[in-house]
Amino acid sequence: MATTTTISQVGEFPLISSMVGDLTMGQAVTLGPGDDGAVFQVDGSAVVSTDVLVEEVHFRRRWSTATDVGRKAVAVNVSDIEAMGAVPVALVVGFSAPGDLPASWAREFMAGMTAESQKAGVSVVGGDTTGGPVVSIAVTVIGQTAGMAPVRRDGAVPGDEVAVIGQLGLAAAGLALLGRGFRSPRAVVAAQRCPEVPYGQGRVAAKAGVHAMIDVSDGLLADLGHIAEASGFAMDIDTAKLDITESVRTVGMATGVDPLTWVLAGGEDHALAATFAPGTVPDGWTVVGRVLPPDEAPDPTVLVDGQVWQQERGWTHFHS
Ligand SMILES: Nc1ncnc2c1ncn2[C@@H]1O[C@H](COP(=O)(O)OP(=O)(O)OP(=O)(O)O)[C@@H](O)[C@H]1O
Ligand SMILES: Cc1ncc(C[n+]2csc(CCOP(=O)(O)O)c2C)c(N)n1
Ligand SMILES: [Mg+2]
C-alpha cells in the first residue's frame, strides 16, 4: 500500500526548506526567507493588512486543492492593499497544520501562493510554520503608497457615483454548490476556491481620484455599509444596474435561491467597490448606485432600490 509522507515525518526545518525553496523575490526585496526578518524597500508609506484563513471556516480540504488555498490566501490579502489604492510589495505567511498533513499539501500550498503572488506582483518574503489542530493560514501583506494618498473608507460625499469592478455573487453561489455536493458550473466553484481579484484596479481608481473604496469580502451591502458609516452618508443601490452573471443565475435556478441575494450579500468575491465624483468613474467599472444627501436619507445605511433591505447584508463570523 502506498504511504503518504506527512509533515511530521519530514520535520520542521526540512519542511520549511521544501516550502521556501522555489520562491522568487521581486526587485524591492534585499533579504528573503532564511533570517530572523526579511528586508525590502517601500516607496512612500507602508500599508499593511492581515487576513486569516482557517480550515472548515474559510475552506475545506475536500472542496479545494492545496494550490487553491495558497492562491486564495494571497488573493484575499492583496485585495485589501488594492482597496487602499496602494501597490502590493511583500507577504509573510503564518502556516499551522496537524502533523498528519501530507507534505505534498504544504508544498502545493506554497506553489499556489507563488503562482498568485506572481499574478499580483508581490513576493512571499517569509513566514512561520507550526503545528496546530487544523490548517490555519495567517497572511500579512505590505504595500506601498508610491506617491499617492491612501484611499480610505470615509471619503464618500453626496452625489458620488457608487461603482464596482470584479465578480459579485460567484463565490457565494460556488459555496452553495459545494455544500450540496456539486462541482459545476466550474466558474462559480472556481470563484469560491479562489476569487478573481481585479489586480491593479485599486490603483486605477486612486489615479482617477476615487473618494472612498473597499474590497467586497463579506458582501456588497455589508462592505458598502462600512463606507456609508465611515463617511456619514447613505447610499442607494439600483439592482437593475447589477450584472448577474449567467452561471450565478443558473445556480440560483437549480437551488431555488434568488441570485440577487448572492450578488448583494455573498462574500469572498473580493471585487472592489468605490465612490467617485460624477463623471470620473474609470473604464471597466460599473456604476450601481449613488451616495445620497442627508435630506434624502438621514441614516448612513445602504438602501436597495430606495428601500431598506430586509434580508442578510453579508457574512459575519460568530453567528449562530
Ligand atoms: N484582532 C484585531 N486587532 C486589531 N485590529 C483588528 C482586529 N481585527 C480586525 N481589526 C481591524 O478592524 C478593521 C476591520 O477588520 P476586518 O477583518 O473586517 O477587515 P476588512 O478589510 O473589512 O475585511 P477583509 O480583511 O476580509 O477584507 C480593520 O481595520 C482591521 O485591521
Ligand atoms: C467551509 C466554508 N464555510 C463557509 C464559507 C463562507 N465564508 C467563510 S468566511 C466568509 C467571509 C469572509 O471572511 P473574512 O471576514 O474572515 O475575511 C465566508 C463567506 C467558506 N468559504 N468555507
Ligand atoms: Mg477589506
Automatic annotation (TrEMBL):
It comes from Cutibacterium acnes (Propionibacterium acnes). GO terms for molecular function: ATP binding; magnesium ion binding; thiamine-phosphate kinase activity. Pathway: Cofactor biosynthesis; thiamine diphosphate biosynthesis; thiamine diphosphate from thiamine phosphate: step 1/1. Substrate binds at residues 58, 268, 315. It catalyses: thiamine phosphate + ATP = thiamine diphosphate + ADP. Mg(2+) 2 binds at residues 51, 80. The lineage of its organism: Bacteria, Bacillati, Actinomycetota, Actinomycetes, Propionibacteriales. Mg(2+) 5 binds at residue 218. Belongs to the thiamine-monophosphate kinase family. Residues 34-144 form the PurM-like N-terminal domain. This is Thiamine-monophosphate kinase. Its EC number is 2.7.4.16. Reaction mechanism of ThiL seems to utilize a direct, inline transfer of the gamma-phosphate of ATP to TMP rather than a phosphorylated enzyme intermediate. Catalyzes the ATP-dependent phosphorylation of thiamine-monophosphate (TMP) to form thiamine-pyrophosphate (TPP), the active form of vitamin B1. Mg(2+) 3 binds at residues 36, 80, 215. Keywords: ATP-binding, Kinase, Magnesium, Metal-binding, Nucleotide-binding, Thiamine biosynthesis, Transferase.
